[in-house]
Amino acid sequence: LTLRSKNAEAPLLLNLWIDPENFLPRKTELVSGTLTLSTFIKDLRENPDLDNRLFQYKLPENANEIKGAE
User: Fold this and answer.
1) CA distance 4 to 31
2) Which residue in 30, 31, 65, 68 could disulfide with 37, CB within 3.0 to 4.6 Å?
3) Burial of 52 by CB count in 10 Å (0-12 exposed, 13-18 middle, 19+ buried)?
4) In what order do the strands lie in the sheet containing 35-40?
5) Torsions phi, psi of 30, nearest 5?
6) Three-state DSSP string of 2-69
7) pLDDT tens, 8-23?
């Protein structure tokens, strides 16, 4: 799958290689002029069991919490 930007002054191409079993990208390639950035996804694990402690945030001591409107 190739996506092209509409900006003629800074054209970009994004090439995606999609896994036909789960429809997730396995490889990406971003092309801009002479620069090409490639990523490869290895050892993909869908919906792994993750410990909830990974998602606990501890505010740094010198920071202030700003709460938004609820």
Assistant:
1) 10
2) 30
3) exposed
4) 2-4, 13-18, 25-32, 35-40
5) -105, 125
6) EEECCCCCCCCEEEEEECCCCCCEEEEEEEECCEEEEEECCCCCCCCCCCHHHHCCCCCCCCCCCCCC
7) 888 899 999 999 988 9
